[in-house]
Amino acid sequence: MAKLLEGKAVAEEIKKKIKNQVQDLKQAPVLASILVGDNSAAAAYVKSQAKAAENLSIVYKLFQLDKDITEQVLIDLILKLNVDKAVDGIIIQMPLPAAIDYKKISQFIAPEKDIEGMHPENIGKILFGKAKLIPCTVASIMELINSGGIDLYGKEVVVVGHSEIVGKPLALLLLDKFATVTVCHIGTSKAGKLEEHVRGAEILIVAVGKAGLVKGEWIKEGAVVIDVGINRVADKIVGDVEFEAAEKRASYITPVPGGVGPLTVTMLMRNLVEAAKARQ
Ligand code: NAD
User: Fold this and answer.
1) Residue-range domains of the chain with CATH
2) Ligand 1 pocket list (CB less than 6 A)
3) Whose CA is nearest to atom 3 of ligand 1?
4) Distances (CA, A) of 256 to 1, 26, 46, 250
5) What pTM was computed for the model?
């Protein structure tokens, strides 16, 4: 039976370090959070971020904008926050109203305040192994792997999902650790090759958003399984991997919920403190 890789325990350890770093700063770090409209998921993220910030003595400043604003209004606010000496990091809450293009808007955030690590400059730094601000989900995955004492050097790592926020930056970071990385995606499935790749994985990371996509019987004996997927099935949250069958074969596995998810807010705060340290 696999050991569980649980995000909460790992987050607690990292929070202790963040607390110390905050104390060493001249001023409490300030996170500017932009919420557009009244989406309930975005409002829930704000609530949990504000609580996490408070616990770490981080100042959380919420900027609420009407759902009907133009992109220019949002850009103007970002540009103002970019030059505001009191602000260390900026986050735009998702989802945004349909009329606003996140990819376009997020590029206006100053790279040194981009605590989500999604500005092209920060993504580019990952390619060169020089990134300080890493996308939070990816940082969480790397921390979970690290917490299990799992060595990546020379390992067959299969990443399923090639999004800009998870799969692609993750693959680059894994390459930096000298893993042999295979990235699978919808094309792999359509070609009927997903099972073959998954079966060869010593470390499997799945970030797709389809419950039951990866069958438990595909998991290699002793493999490490990190399930990033979040799917609501009959009022329950499940991942992309068939958990019960997979945990019988894996050596380590993340529960869903409870694996990657609980770490991401902590990673956001860690990025904020990194940004504050660099500016101060
Ligand atoms: P996305 O929609 O941007 O990308 C999905 C990826 O899955 C794409 O690469 C696509 O090619 C691939 N894909 C789709 N169908 C497939 C199939 N049948 N076989 C193989 N690959 C397939 O998604 P995302 O934003 O990267 O998120 C992925 C999942 O991770 C979602 O469930 C999301 O909720 C979850 N997520 C969780 C966290 C967390 O904190 N735990 C953070 C971010 C995303």
Assistant:
1) 26-111 (3.40.50.10860), 136-261 (3.40.50.720)
2) 137, 160-163, 165-167, 184-186, 188-189, 194, 207-210, 213, 228-230, 260-261, 264
3) 163
4) 16, 39, 21, 15
5) 0.97
